[in-house]
Amino acid sequence: MCHPPQHYRLASGQRQDQEDPCKTKSKVVGDVTYCDRYWECINNQPELYDCPNGLVFAGKHRGVTEGCDYPWRSNYCDGKQLATLEEEEEEEEYDGPISTEHCDWLYGIFGHETSCTRYWTCWNGTATEQLCIGGLLYNENAHSCDWPENVDGCQKHPLCNEDANGNVPLGKSCNRYWQCQGGYPRLQRCPAMLVFDRRSLRCVVPPTEDCDVPTTPLPLEYEPEQQQQQQGKGNPNAIYQPSGAGGLQGGKLQSGGRNKN
């Protein structure tokens, strides 16, 4: 359950250059000193609120919740400080980073402790594990999945540990594979009518021990007159797709070779 934001009445020592939210159309303004605080006009009185732990003020109806956003998404804190990182002072209440398992703050996106391909999204202290796909690694600076060459500390992807410039099978796929380039994997596809051989680790003429000869589907323009009339039932735009043709199953094209049982 989300905790309501902490709020405080306007203090006598409030900076004189602080904008009064009650004099603005939105009735909400950011704090002039702290980027994780904002002022809201309540009953014609300015009241100070804290953003949820780990977030900063972005503006009314903006951000991920309560007008607050992840601090790295924009220059929200330029020229300002985080109240949550200030030392406790008289008559002021500061909450430092509140950590839970896998979460440095209650809200945020954080790197995985042991994996370069995984990361954590934290919402009110609850961590959810996420996975980077397509050969990407988690970039702590960008807070997102990125190409391995842009990620410090994870210079080699686990897929390319054995051979930094070799090929790696992609599951049971017969025509797709990983190509490692300097330790970074790139998803590749074998040319038409070739399959990926898991033993030689290259595209070869089939069949192989794992993959049959790729089937070539009949072109969609193939429309026997009699069948077209039956399928179209008077619709001149109907396209007949024979269910028994090689490479067509249930009206869908089947690409590449198929795995042997």
TrEMBL record:
Compositionally biased region (Low complexity): 214-231
Chitin-binding type-2 domain location: 19-79, 100-156, 157-213
A Pfam family of this chain: CBM_14
Region described as Disordered: 1-22, 214-261
GO terms for cellular component: extracellular region
Gene Ontology molecular function: any one: chitin binding
Residue ranges with Gly residues bias: 244-254
Alphabetical UniProt keywords: Chitin-binding, Disulfide bond, Glycoprotein, Repeat, Signal
SMART domains cross-referenced by the UniProt entry: ChtBD2 (SM00494)
UniProt superkingdom: Eukaryota
Name the UniProt record assigns to this protein: Chitin-binding type-2 domain-containing protein
